[in-house]
FAD-dependent oxidoreductase (Isoptericola chiayiensis), 1154 residues
Amino acid sequence: MTERLKIVVVGSVAAGTSAAAKARRGSEDAEIVVYERDTDISYSGCGLPYYLGGRVETIDVLTPRDAAWFAKRYGIDVRTGHEVTGVDTAARTVTVRDLASGETFTDDYDELVLATGVSPVVPPLPGVDADGVFTLRNPSDATAIREWIENRGARRAVIVGAGYIGLETAEQLTERGLDVTVVEMEAHSMPRMDADVADRVDDELRSRGVELLTRARVTSIETSDDGAARAVRVEAGAEPGSGPGSGSGDAERTVETDLVVVAVGVRPNLDLARAAGVRVGESGAIAVDPAGRTSADHVWAVGDVAESFDLITGDPAWVPLGSTANKTGRIAGDALTGGDLEHRGILGTSIVRVFDLAVAQTGLTEDRARAAGFDPVVVHNIKPDRPAYLGGQEMLIKAVADRRTGRLLGAQAVGPSGVDKRIDVLATAITFGAKAEDLFHLDLAYAPTYATTKDPVHYTGMALDGAISGRAALVSASELDRRRDGGEQVQVVDVRSAKDRAKSAVDDSVHIPLAELRARADELDPALPTVTYCNKGVTGNAGQNVLRGRGFADVANLSGGNKTYQRHVRGRSAEGR
Amino acid sequence: MTERLKIVVVGSVAAGTSAAAKARRGSEDAEIVVYERDTDISYSGCGLPYYLGGRVETIDVLTPRDAAWFAKRYGIDVRTGHEVTGVDTAARTVTVRDLASGETFTDDYDELVLATGVSPVVPPLPGVDADGVFTLRNPSDATAIREWIENRGARRAVIVGAGYIGLETAEQLTERGLDVTVVEMEAHSMPRMDADVADRVDDELRSRGVELLTRARVTSIETSDDGAARAVRVEAGAEPGSGPGSGSGDAERTVETDLVVVAVGVRPNLDLARAAGVRVGESGAIAVDPAGRTSADHVWAVGDVAESFDLITGDPAWVPLGSTANKTGRIAGDALTGGDLEHRGILGTSIVRVFDLAVAQTGLTEDRARAAGFDPVVVHNIKPDRPAYLGGQEMLIKAVADRRTGRLLGAQAVGPSGVDKRIDVLATAITFGAKAEDLFHLDLAYAPTYATTKDPVHYTGMALDGAISGRAALVSASELDRRRDGGEQVQVVDVRSAKDRAKSAVDDSVHIPLAELRARADELDPALPTVTYCNKGVTGNAGQNVLRGRGFADVANLSGGNKTYQRHVRGRSAEGR
């Protein structure tokens, strides 16, 4: 191109600046202008909760780059306080309003990049506009919340929503000394995860003194005479195992508070996209091709406002995350300047720290795998991150594979240590189309300071592979329930020690410790469907092998053992089933 | 098979017991006998250094399983104190000596599994048999060392060899309060790693008060009147930057000590393999097929005594590690009982903690990649594991890819935190044949508590890909040296701030800060080969882009920046070049 390319970017948090910087790397000549209606650019939205808690002392460290930095380093013209209010795709112009002066002007572009991001969803509740009710999306929000807490001497907080931001905020405000109540409409925190993993997060929250109300809906926010929020009215529904103070059976209750943070989700900022007439995908975000092109010529969309697609299924997917925003920004910046980068899809890999627990996931959950038409094989693998003699602590990995092809589809993990590593390894394996059987072969770094000789990833692969091949069939707690409820006679064998059995056991199980199983197998009926179990699954699998070797035709091991079964039972009673 | 299969396993540390346990899972009927000449079985050899330091309080926790446990759980007959002294592969019998009674008997087998492991190499030095001179291979060794330290009130130790065991022992004895000297023949610790990574380990050791003598050879061990080691004579050679007390230029010196631990490597225990007439591979370990079969019918070899092969090159490889031993044992146990598991090769992935530094590697080093016939592209990537605002600390990742295919070949990493995760992700990627360009696309778990928005793995892939494609050519410090030494005129441009430049700079470089580079590019000659640099590489790459955009034909960025260059310079002077 002989004429100088002009790129206009709208929005400058993660994707917009990534696109601009990459475009500059691709073309030293291009004119690059970024319009941002806010004052802060290129900030770390994910770091905001840590400013609330004081782990991040000043807000400045979360906004390390300003317009001058971009001008100097990249020769990029970033104009904050400028809102793009209109677009004419035929004339290739945008209408821009200078928020300081109130003046409006027109700018032209060769290529337009929409990086308009998302806004927090705020349900239209009575009182939601009161002082002391916040969302947490940008540095101004964080500053306002912290000032509110400090100026008002706030001691209680209600967080509405138990997703990433809600939980990080709950943690940080608790560590700051506030009494925190979290209100979540779904049956458990982390609604994108399966219930039998997220329940561990619920436990962690409660053990740290957070009052977690699930299946609970905020109906209104009450205000004081000074116009500030003073209480939240909560319709409690069936409230599973909530903390003290929650009147059981109450249809509605009042939670007094000094502030409310609404963190129930975000939605794409589509005004400009609509003005440009670009197609919006089925997820509700802007549909784009793998380079970031929208349906309108010379209009691109990147970051949280753009739709992505699932790496496994290829279906449209929208999971707004900083990691993906950075990627799609860079990809479009490359494509804008002649490069050939293309987005390869997402696994929705994500992680959040909730007190001492890392909570992470990648790929499909059991529920989504089934919804996508797979026949999911599931394992619950409970393993320490390191040997106990060097302080190893247990994590749970729930992994899902496709029974037909053996392909690994997804994993969720929770635990105090080493969870991020296992999820990233599994995400990498899934990306390359790994089958469950491939995991055992991975040559991972072993030293007792970092891992066990066989890593939790290896064990997960071995268990999945055994279940798929039928050599070590697994049955989940819910499936066992379902089969028994359906009238099937299942012989359930507890192969643990008498001591373990005394603590808790699966309903209607017989007790034959593993060491006696070879000798006492004839007490069982080899023709009956049989389920073996232990505490976590390993000894149950050994028992399963013994019985299979003794000619039992149908022996499954209880996935995740009694430990997982008892959690299932608790969840079942909470649901009133 | 109608007759009962009889499997005899010789050796019971990691691979032998893995093979036996997996064989039992595969066949409930087989008779499985394990002979072990030692008293301890199935112990964690990798945990032994932590017993020396007291982090592991009792030796029992490293030997959690005994013969009774295997009998009860698996119906496996483990006979400790029994040495297999001969084998007749025609008759399928072994000769066994009961070490307690001195009696010898013959046992027959259908399948024989050699899991005889390795023994420490002990160089034939004068005084090496003295009291107070140890190797560290099994729990008895660890117990003997700890008793020696406690009984003698030992305050000084000399470790011979700076590999995994040597360094872990050095760390643990230092933490116990001993003054430790490490003597290493090679130019740096961790001899399997490249010098420009291992030098960071050398620094860590020295900063913790360990006296590290490199290019140094122990010539003799001197003893006291009571027959105990009292000093080590060291031929110092050219001694790069060693600690105080090492007379510079001394050909030989004496290091007084209260004990000596010899950790210069291990060699396979081949007596039985030789008796069986099985083929030994070029690595010196027993040659096996991917299931573990040796060249002799019905004789298998697993664990450290068996040769493996390189996953990337397919060449025979022998890297004795607990992780691989467990794998090959399990694989043979499966194959022995009708399974189809096959070993897929190793990357030599390994990790060691040295005080606050994790030191890890996977795949080919730069040196080995070149030796294997690849044209290696190398990056030195210095990145924090997390954002600085949450306490992120820098790690170095040195990664190697093949210029022709783009395939990732290997990585080495050192840093205080998050190194194990990145190496495991890279090992997984290499296993699936990842190209450098694939790394950027990985959907890894981001939260500021665990990673940066673009992970160090992403940056590594981006830098490698840029270097391979030529969009962001890299030059290493040594290559720059080589070119200049060869008389080539290279224009070296320092794009850092004046403050950074004042501290140290690359020889004969001109200084134009990045912010001024666009305006001042005409001070440089666009026809000359040009190298840009900054502190670590990122800003240098930005400068490189500016100059390329200005029409400079040949611009490379200095890999790892001035930080890596200055280390190179120090190494160069230490080598007297």
